[in-house]
Backbone:
């Protein structure tokens, strides 16, 4: 046998085993819960929260990381013993570090230096290395430098919308629609999500069209984020008009996975309102979730208010994106909030007004 054939055969064996490990992990993973709340202020409108923080790595990005590794393996880009790198503000990096450990690979996360300390510690606890960059706009370039040195660049921002099978195969959209099947309003009026890589909104938007559903898709975005600016103008060269404290969304520039045409609405939410809503979610659900979950929640309340004013009933589904414990030193720290000019009491009043000061909701199981 030719030496190259032996090498190719050995590489194929390792690739097959790596894919088998990912398949076994998928089989061991249960689907995430869809929590149901109703509020007296919104009669006939049901709220559902897809608890993606329940994944083994604590966030929505668990699904994306698995898909990115499969995509790299099946495209012949990831080899045995090869280093892995990606640019990430945290949650994706944590999930990618977890899967790298599962496959016996080294992993480096290129992160903005302002990333939550807890997220950095989580990556390191999984055996990953954090390459911290002072200028957040340079994380992509630094990741490419690692790739040029031989690492496999998972490239979540460049590949997220194509790495996930949007037609099904237990993607998040298929999961939501399946779990809604026996609910009073099984076809949601709205599904609300944020846009980090754009992969989730692309998957949901495509799946809704593929299934010929009337459900509309709303992207919840920090004020002035690049998705909001690009969606409004259909100009992919635009940049964010202001920074945000909400990690993972509100990107500074338009990412390749931002598909504007399949999004029906974009809601821009103040950082203070997002943070206050994240605090409110702890009261409502008994555990903490990150700032992007708060952004989603405020957008849901705005949409529900408009439905109520039009006399409409129905259901709204959104995502609980990651564990709030990762933000104990930032979004859930009053001193940190004060340093960043966040008046939590005032923002909390605004969120309470949207809720109609309804008091305790009814949690339905």
Residues:
């Amino acid at each position: 046998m030719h030496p190259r054939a032996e090498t190719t055969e050995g590489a194929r064996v390792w690739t097959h085993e790596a894919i088998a490990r990912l398949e076994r992990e998928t089989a061991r993973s249960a689907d995430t819960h869809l929590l149901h709340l109703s509020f007296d202020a919104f009669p006939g409108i049901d709220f559902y929260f897809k608890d993606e923080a329940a994944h083994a790595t604590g966030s929505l990005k668990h699904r994306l990381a698995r898909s990115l590794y499969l995509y790299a393996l099946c495209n012949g880009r990831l080899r045995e013993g090869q280093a892995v790198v990606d640019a990430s503000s945290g949650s994706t990096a944590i999930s990618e570090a977890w899967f790298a450990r599962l496959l016996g690979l080294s992993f480096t996360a290129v992160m903005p230096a302002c990333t939550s300390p807890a997220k950095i510690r989580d990556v390191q606890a999984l055996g990953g290395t954090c390459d911290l960059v002072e200028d957040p706009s340079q994380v992509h370039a630094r990741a490419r430098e690692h790739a040029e040195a031989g690492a496999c660049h998972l490239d979540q921002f460049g590949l997220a919308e194509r790495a996930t099978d949007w037609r099904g195969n237990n993607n998040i959209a298929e999961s939501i629609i399946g779990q809604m099947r026996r609910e009073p309003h099984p076809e949601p009026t709205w599904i609300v999500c944020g846009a980090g890589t754009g992969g989730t909104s692309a998957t949901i938007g495509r799946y809704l069209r593929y299934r010929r559903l009337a459900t509309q898709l709303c992207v919840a975005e920090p004020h002035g984020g690049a998705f909001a600016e690009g969606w409004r103008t259909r100009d992919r060269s635009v940049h964010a008009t202001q920074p945000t404290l909400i990690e993972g969304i509100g990107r500074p520039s338009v990412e390749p996975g931002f598909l504007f045409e399949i999004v029906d609405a974009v809601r821009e939410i103040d950082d203070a309102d997002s943070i206050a809503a994240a605090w409110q979610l702890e009261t409502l659900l008994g555990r903490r979730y990150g700032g992007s979950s708060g952004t989603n929640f405020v957008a849901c309340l705005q949409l529900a208010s408009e439905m109520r004013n039009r006399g409409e009933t129905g259901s709204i589904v959104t995502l609980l994106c990651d564990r709030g414990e990762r933000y104990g030193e930032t979004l859930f720290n009053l001193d940190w909030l004060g340093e960043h000019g966040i008046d939590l009491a005032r923002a909390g009043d605004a969120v309470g007004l949207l809720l109609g000061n309804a008091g305790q909701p009814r949690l339905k199981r």
User: Anything to note?
Assistant: Confidence is low (pLDDT under 50) at residues 1-6, 358-365. The first strand starts at residue 34 and ends at 38. The two ends are 61 Å apart (CA to CA).
